[in-house]
Amino acid sequence: xxxxxxxxxxxxxxxxxxxxxxxxxxxxxxxxxxxxxxxxxxxxxxxxxxxxxxxxxxxxxxxxxxxxxxxxxxxxxxxxxxxxxxxxxxxxxxxxxxxxxxxxxxxxxxxxxxxxxxxxxxxxxxxxxxxxxxxxxxxxxxxxxxxxxxxxxxxxxxxxxxxxxxxxxxxxxxxxxxxxxxxxxxxxxxxxxxxxxxxxxxxxxxxxxxxxxxxxxxxxxxxxxxxxxxxxxxxxxxxxxxxxxxxxxxxxxxxxxxxxxxxxxxxxxxxxxxxxxxxxxxxxxxxxxxxxxxxxxxxxxxxxxxxxxxxxxxxxxxxxxxxxxxxxxxxxxxxxxxxxxxxxxxx
Length: 347
Description:
This protein is α+β, with helices and mostly antiparallel strands.
């Protein structure tokens, strides 16, 4: 029987085959890299329940272990897929180098809660006037004690923006009974204005007359109008609460545009970030960014910015302080961070 001769591959076909193999290999390598970085990012941003909710008869609350609790006769389990990022707006125009660092305060403190399991994004605003426990550090960064003061002052104690961010994240974690907050980002006033301009401006409707703005008259914020709108505060007990409402208006509009951009072209988010990064401080690395970008595609945002429940009152030295309603706050925490357990016995 005659042997069938194998057809030789032409040089051009062989070259094309090699190129295709290389491209496929590179694609697989890139996919593996993205997957690996995403996994690393997830590991850095998610974790077990670290909150120690108050357990006493008055709160109708009981801890059952393994992240499971009973509240008013119902069982709930901590959602360990949640990622928390603290977003801070700083009360100064430009970020300074660490060598020339001057203390500032965080006017805006918003906890971004990313929940891939339920495909939702929750924004929770914490008043700058919230009374809480702050870490006090010396010039070498060593902790020397704690003090009860307004949340905004936590940023003031840092010797650099990174340290100030960490101190503020620690203070917010204590407010939330030890919640794990692995990521943070702060932005200075000029960075916020630049961000609004980069996305083409945002439209808001003031609820009252102030600083040249008219109640009920829609206005498009661009340039210095953004700073005028979000920074003005009248010095009354509710002055900061009114300012928080305006800041939340701007933040909601920015979130809508950012999510829209991320879904249509995720890489453009990096371009936006690079244009404001001189006024931004963050510990979010590349692996975290890749993980967050992959989650953002499926996230739904209802357009609301929740606020920690409570009331404002005059404290010592005639400064307004915000006092949290602990019962309502517990319900809010369970609603955001826990899933109800149905037909299941907790381990």
